[in-house]
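User: I've been trying to design a sequence by hand for this structure and keep getting stuck. Would you show me what you'd pick, starting by listing the structure so we're on the same page?

Assistant: Good idea, let's start from the same input. This is the structure you sent:
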């Protein structure tokens, strides 16, 4: 068995993680968009990102943050960080877009709760 001190936080192999929900569930629209974005950035025409890069980005998320994120939140974090690293998007561009979306969201009466 691997030394537990060498195990990265996300590496759950061989550990008891409780029951696994195997049934289908309804995906939120943002989860579907996240999946679509990953398919687009990794398709054979664009090749902006590989599944290995997605995995690396997820594995680099710190333990406390990792545990608080959902599956697709981890995907979106990894995709964003990879695209930032490659200069496909820039921090200021991302910040402006996030502010724009938040303003629309608040104008629509969303509370985030």
């Amino acid at each position: 068995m691997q030394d537990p001190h060498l195990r990265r936080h996300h590496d759950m192999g061989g550990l008891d993680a409780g029951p696994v929900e195997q049934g289908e569930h309804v995906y939120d629209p943002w989860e579907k968009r996240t999946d679509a974005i990953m398919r687009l950035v990794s398709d054979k025409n664009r090749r902006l990102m590989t599944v290995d890069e997605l995995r690396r980005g997820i594995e680099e998320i710190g333990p406390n943050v990792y545990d608080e994120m959902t599956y697709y939140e981890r995907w979106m974090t990894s995709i964003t960080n990879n695209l930032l690293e490659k200069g496909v998007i820039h921090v200021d561009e991302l910040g402006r877009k996030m502010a724009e979306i938040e303003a629309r969201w608040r104008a629509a009466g969303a509370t985030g709760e």
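That's my pick for every position. To get oriented when you compare it with your attempt: The radius of gyration is 17 Å. The chain has five helices and no strands.
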